[in-house]
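Supplementary Methods. Inverse-folding protocol.

Structures were first reduced to a C-alpha coordinate string of length 110. This string, shown here, constituted the complete conditioning input.
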Protein backbone atom coordinates (compact mmCIF):
# COMPACT_ATOMS: atom_id res chain seq x y z
CA UNK A 1 0.00 0.00 0.00
CA UNK A 2 1.03 3.60 -0.38
CA UNK A 3 0.90 3.99 3.41
CA UNK A 4 3.35 1.11 3.86
CA UNK A 5 5.52 2.25 0.94
CA UNK A 6 5.31 -0.82 -1.29
CA UNK A 7 5.93 -4.55 -1.27
CA UNK A 8 6.59 -5.95 2.19
CA UNK A 9 5.64 -8.85 4.43
CA UNK A 10 3.48 -8.46 7.51
CA UNK A 11 2.08 -10.58 10.29
CA UNK A 12 -1.69 -10.30 10.43
CA UNK A 13 -2.64 -9.97 14.08
CA UNK A 14 -6.32 -9.15 13.72
CA UNK A 15 -8.01 -11.24 11.02
CA UNK A 16 -11.30 -9.34 11.44
CA UNK A 17 -9.86 -6.46 9.36
CA UNK A 18 -9.17 -8.66 6.33
CA UNK A 19 -11.09 -10.72 3.82
CA UNK A 20 -9.38 -13.96 2.82
CA UNK A 21 -10.00 -15.91 -0.38
CA UNK A 22 -8.98 -19.58 -0.33
CA UNK A 23 -7.48 -20.60 -3.66
CA UNK A 24 -6.68 -24.33 -3.20
CA UNK A 25 -3.27 -24.10 -4.84
CA UNK A 26 -0.93 -27.01 -5.38
CA UNK A 27 2.37 -27.02 -3.48
CA UNK A 28 4.18 -26.32 -6.76
CA UNK A 29 1.93 -23.33 -7.51
CA UNK A 30 2.44 -21.93 -4.00
CA UNK A 31 6.21 -22.24 -4.43
CA UNK A 32 6.18 -20.37 -7.75
CA UNK A 33 4.18 -17.56 -6.18
CA UNK A 34 6.42 -17.43 -3.11
CA UNK A 35 9.60 -17.17 -5.22
CA UNK A 36 8.09 -14.37 -7.29
CA UNK A 37 6.89 -12.45 -4.22
CA UNK A 38 10.20 -12.77 -2.40
CA UNK A 39 11.95 -11.38 -5.49
CA UNK A 40 9.72 -8.30 -5.40
CA UNK A 41 10.16 -7.43 -1.71
CA UNK A 42 11.14 -3.82 -1.21
CA UNK A 43 9.75 -2.52 -4.50
CA UNK A 44 7.89 0.76 -4.21
CA UNK A 45 4.16 1.44 -4.38
CA UNK A 46 3.07 2.57 -7.85
CA UNK A 47 0.61 5.38 -7.23
CA UNK A 48 0.78 6.55 -10.86
CA UNK A 49 0.18 2.97 -12.00
CA UNK A 50 -3.34 3.14 -10.66
CA UNK A 51 -4.09 5.56 -13.51
CA UNK A 52 -4.17 2.46 -15.71
CA UNK A 53 -7.73 1.88 -14.44
CA UNK A 54 -8.95 4.98 -16.25
CA UNK A 55 -6.34 5.68 -18.93
CA UNK A 56 -6.22 2.73 -21.34
CA UNK A 57 -2.90 3.69 -22.91
CA UNK A 58 -1.11 4.47 -19.63
CA UNK A 59 1.75 2.05 -18.95
CA UNK A 60 2.76 1.77 -15.27
CA UNK A 61 6.37 1.52 -14.20
CA UNK A 62 7.67 -2.07 -14.06
CA UNK A 63 9.79 -1.44 -10.96
CA UNK A 64 6.79 -0.51 -8.82
CA UNK A 65 3.49 -2.20 -7.91
CA UNK A 66 0.03 -1.35 -6.69
CA UNK A 67 -1.90 -3.89 -4.63
CA UNK A 68 -4.21 -5.66 -7.08
CA UNK A 69 -1.59 -5.50 -9.84
CA UNK A 70 0.88 -7.32 -7.59
CA UNK A 71 -1.65 -10.00 -6.62
CA UNK A 72 -2.56 -10.69 -10.26
CA UNK A 73 1.11 -10.81 -11.33
CA UNK A 74 1.79 -13.20 -8.44
CA UNK A 75 -1.04 -15.54 -9.40
CA UNK A 76 0.04 -15.45 -13.04
CA UNK A 77 3.27 -17.16 -11.99
CA UNK A 78 1.33 -20.42 -11.71
CA UNK A 79 -0.95 -19.88 -14.70
CA UNK A 80 -3.90 -18.25 -12.97
CA UNK A 81 -5.59 -15.16 -14.41
CA UNK A 82 -3.36 -15.33 -17.49
CA UNK A 83 -5.98 -13.47 -19.57
CA UNK A 84 -5.88 -10.36 -17.35
CA UNK A 85 -3.55 -7.39 -17.72
CA UNK A 86 -2.29 -7.04 -14.16
CA UNK A 87 -2.10 -3.25 -14.31
CA UNK A 88 -5.71 -2.90 -15.45
CA UNK A 89 -7.62 -4.56 -12.60
CA UNK A 90 -8.76 -2.85 -9.44
CA UNK A 91 -9.12 -4.57 -6.05
CA UNK A 92 -12.91 -4.94 -6.26
CA UNK A 93 -12.81 -6.57 -9.69
CA UNK A 94 -10.04 -8.89 -8.56
CA UNK A 95 -12.05 -9.97 -5.53
CA UNK A 96 -15.05 -10.59 -7.76
CA UNK A 97 -13.00 -12.75 -10.10
CA UNK A 98 -11.47 -14.81 -7.32
CA UNK A 99 -14.80 -15.44 -5.62
CA UNK A 100 -16.88 -16.18 -8.73
CA UNK A 101 -17.21 -19.01 -11.20
CA UNK A 102 -15.27 -16.93 -13.76
CA UNK A 103 -11.92 -18.42 -12.71
CA UNK A 104 -11.53 -21.89 -14.19
CA UNK A 105 -10.66 -24.35 -11.36
CA UNK A 106 -8.02 -26.05 -13.53
CA UNK A 107 -5.83 -22.94 -13.31
CA UNK A 108 -5.40 -23.44 -9.56
CA UNK A 109 -3.26 -26.57 -9.92
CA UNK A 110 -0.51 -25.45 -12.30
Amino acid sequence: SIRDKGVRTITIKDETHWTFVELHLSTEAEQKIRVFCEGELGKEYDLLGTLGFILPTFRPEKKKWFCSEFVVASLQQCGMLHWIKAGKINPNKLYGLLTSQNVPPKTFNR
